[in-house]
Amino acid sequence: MRKQILFYLLTVICSIQAYGQQEFRPGSLWPDQDGKHINAHGGGILYHGDTYYWFGEFKTEGKAGNKALVGVSCYSSKDLYSWKNEGIALRVENDSTSEITKGCVIERPKVIYNRKTKKFVLWFHLELKGQGYDAARTAVAVSDHPTGPYRYIQSYRPNSKTWPINFDKAWQTKAVKESDLKAHTDPWRKEVAEGLFVRRDFEKGQMSRDMTLFVDDDGKAYHIHAAEENLTLHISELSDDYLSFTGKWATLAPAGHNEAPALVKRNGKYFLITSGCTGWEPNAARSFVSNSIWGPWISLGNPARGNNAERTFESQSTFILPVHGRKDQYIFMADRWVPENAIDGRYIWLPLTFEGDKPVIKWFDQWSLKQLATP
Ligand code: GAL
Question: What structural domains does the chain harbor?
Answer without folding.
Answer: 32-156 (2.115.10.20)
